[in-house]
Amino acid sequence: MTTVAEARSTLIFTYGTLKRGFSNHPLLEGLIATGDVAFIAYGVTAQALPLVCGPFRVPFLINKPAHGHRVTGEIYAVSAAALARIDELEGLSRGHYERLPIEIQIEEEKRSMEAYFAHRSYGEALWQRSGDQVYDCYSEKLATGYVKRHDRPKNLSFMDHVRVFIASS
User: Fold this and answer.
1) Which residues are catalytic?
2) % of the chain at pLDDT higher than 90
3) What is the DSSP letter of 17?
4) How many helices (H) does the chain have, and how many strands (E)?
5) pLDDT at 4 over 50
């Protein structure tokens, strides 16, 4: 059943650092406090998708259906203002991620929403670089070694770090 808040919002599936307990969740907490974000439910991708870790243990969902696992995460209803803030965090304008439609299973119901995927310009290469190391959940254990944005080396852009990571084996 769709709530009034959901009807005026975009539903976003979060699977990584935006989830509760992870480093980027304070952004959502601030937006929850202003009424721009509401937690809806936990869910799992309707299709198997690769969830991989890239440079700095940053999680990436790869738009490659029928590969990987069904990925667990959290669903939020977000206002247009909140969506703009999250898009900025996720680097949409810089080609870090892209926001795409996704089907999520919430208990017995499938719902359409959006999620942030590794940008198509490097997603396939990142998946290949990861080999068989794909996950069904970005957990605290998996996040061990995650480097926050402000602690990363400043001599290269994030995309440069992605390219170096992909080129390494």
Assistant:
1) 90
2) 91
3) T
4) 6, 7
5) no
